[in-house]
Amino acid sequence: MPLWIVASHVVLWLLVIGIVILMLALVQSNRKLARAIITKPLGEMGLAPGTEAPALLANLVSGEQGQLDDSPYTLFLFVSPTCKPCVDKLPEFDRYYDSANEHGLTTALVVNGSEEEAINMTASFQSKMPIFAASKMESTAFTDYAIAGTPSYCLIDSNNVVLKSGIVNQQLNLLVPIPLTEGALSGSSRTLPSPTGYSVSRVG
Predict the structure, then answer these.
(1) CB atoms within 10 A of CB 73
(2) Model pTM?
């Protein structure tokens, strides 16, 4: 058998072995990710408290963007147009925004969709919330904030430190009560003064 044929067979087998090894590595990586998601309590999905929140890479489609910069605390609410619980909770989120805004906490809606989808999703009510379009095809916001399901939330302070995050699996004012208290965020009954005169937990 000519030497070049032997060499081509060797190269081919090396490529096959390399592909098999790569596939096994990907399968193992996906299994670890799946175990991490399954074993983590549903309500605790998202970025861990005390970690630094990344910049929100999304397009503002309505509301006042300046409010996000001016507020000492921001609550991002991650939703999807195809998520019925998200759609059902939009009026609740909007009422929460009005109450939270009076206490220095800005609430912003982050929609997993295009600008048109974000606008259509909220067209049934005149929301004053800042609304961001963060389609997974154009934005990494949902990945950056480790959003595994919707509706989800992430509460951050003015230093971009995560105070609390998870799935909105009950009334929002029970997950992030107004005014904020350390007891509600970390299990302690002690409260801490905030720049705006209400209480917040500093987790870290």
Answers:
(1) 22
(2) 0.69
The answer to whether the beta carbons of residues 182 and 188 sit under 8 Å apart is yes
CB 78 within 8 A of CB 142: yes
| Rounded (10°) CA dihedral 139, 58, 69, 76 | -80
Reading the chain (204 residues) residue by residue, the pLDDT tens digits are 667 676 777 778 788 787 878 777 665 655 544 444 444 554 457 899 999 999 888 888 875 544 465 678 899 999 999 999 999 999 999 999 988 888 888 899 999 999 999 999 988 877 788 999 999 888 899 999 999 899 999 999 989 999 999 999 889 988 898 887 665 565 333 333 333 332 222 222
Dihedrals phi, psi of 155, to nearest 5 degrees = -100, 125
* Helix/strand/coil (H/E/C) assignment for every residue in 24-47: HHHHHHHHHHHHHHHHCCHHHCCC
Q: How far is CA 183 from CA 37, 131, 179, 188, in A?
A: 26, 29, 11, 4
Architecture of domain 43-186: 3-Layer(aba) Sandwich (3.40)
Whole-angstrom CA distances from 73 to 28, 67, 158, 179 are: 39, 10, 6, 12
* Domain residue ranges in the chain: 1-30, 43-186
Task: In whole angstroms, give the CA distance from residue 77 to residue 5.
Answer: 61
Cis-peptide into 54, omega within 30 deg: no
